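Regression test case RT-17, inverse folding.

Input:
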């Protein structure tokens, strides 16, 4: 099969590798679409796995079951259209039992096994047993999972923030996750959604995601504008949905007294944020981090897209052949796409590759 292998920072090679082995109770999925995530871009362009190359990344994958293991006894069969959650909580460890299943101690981390930037992917038996394979409705394209998977973290964040009808929500960053945050905040009933961004191009068209007011930080002072819009108080809930230490600093000044801030976007490894702790002290702010989401957030992500309340097509800027992943990365880094879904079964000209 064909796959994208990383041999180091920006060293990506489209190669032939052996067809994967199916575990006794596992599955093999023919990957029909795989999203290009911001974390994928970070991993592919940095020394993400020193000493452990080559590696195949990709975790926003959906496709068709190619085969099931001889010991599999479930409902799925070859030919079924499915999405595959690469990480699934055990439900039994101390963190799961405490309601923090996104911090499961036994979650079988996907980073250390083959990802979805390939024509086929093995689904481990443990993930199958934990319900990590879900049927994809016939009316939805395989690209839908490129939106469902990141929405897991968005839901997890907004559940903890308890975004509701009284809230003015400020979202810093108009990337794919920022836009998803805007959409979900509106579904949860947020009174007003404000979005700040320093890229004018990224702000174009964000109104369709539920943004009421957008602020171009390249042309105006974001802090001043947010305070003007909120009567000098600041937003009720602030979500820093970009990898910026500057945004993290600024968020303290844009949040109301007693408000909550989520440092949702992970910054570059080793980057440090200088924070005036007096602002936190005297305003009584709560700052929280967020990664992933619990089982409820996962189910909600599926339901929102499966029901059509979130139209996944609004977030997919384009599709591209998997072999053009470097070009796709460049487009995303330039801020010219919200989300790109890659097709492993398209050649460089977009023609279908026939299965052997």
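Golden output:
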């Amino acid at each position: 099969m064909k796959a994208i292998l990383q041999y180091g920072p920006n060293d990506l090679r489209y190669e032939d590798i052996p067809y994967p082995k199916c575990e006794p109770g596992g599955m093999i999925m023919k990957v029909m679409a795989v999203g290009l995530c911001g974390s994928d871009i970070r991993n592919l362009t940095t020394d993400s796995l020193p000493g452990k190359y080559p590696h195949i990344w990709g975790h926003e994958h959906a496709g068709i079951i190619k085969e099931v293991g001889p010991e599999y006894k479930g409902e799925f069969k070859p030919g079924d259209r499915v999405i595959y959650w690469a990480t699934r909580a055990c439900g039994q460890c101390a963190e799961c039992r405490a309601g923090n299943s996104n911090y499961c101690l036994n979650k079988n981390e996907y980073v250390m096994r083959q990802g979805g930037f390939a024509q086929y992917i093995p689904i481990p038996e443990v993930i199958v047993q934990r319900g990590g394979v879900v049927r994809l409705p016939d009316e939805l394209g395989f690209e839908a999972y490129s939106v469902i998977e990141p929405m897991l973290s968005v839901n997890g964040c907004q559940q903890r923030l308890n975004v509701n009808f009284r809230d003015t929500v400020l979202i810093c960053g108009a990337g794919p996750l920022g836009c998803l945050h805007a959409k979900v905040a509106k579904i949860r009933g947020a009174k007003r959604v404000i979005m700040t961004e320093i890229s004018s191009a990224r702000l174009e068209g964000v109104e369709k995601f539920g943004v009421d007011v957008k602020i171009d930080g390249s042309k105006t002072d974001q802090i001043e504008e947010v305070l003007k819009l909120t009567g000098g108080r600041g937003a009720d809930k602030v979500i820093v949905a970009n990898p910026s230490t500057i945004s993290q600093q600024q968020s303290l000044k844009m949040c109301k007294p007693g408000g909550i801030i989520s440092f949702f976007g992970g910054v570059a490894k080793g980057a440090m944020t200088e924070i005036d702790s007096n602002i936190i002290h005297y305003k009584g702010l709560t700052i929280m981090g967020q990664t992933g989401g619990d089982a409820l957030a996962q189910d909600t992500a599926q339901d929102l897209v499966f029901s059509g309340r979130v139209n996944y097509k609004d977030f997919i800027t384009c599709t591209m052949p998997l072999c053009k992943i470097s070009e796709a990365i460049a487009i995303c880094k330039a801020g010219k796409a919200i989300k790109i879904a890659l097709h492993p079964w398209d050649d460089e000209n977009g023609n279908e590759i026939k299965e052997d």
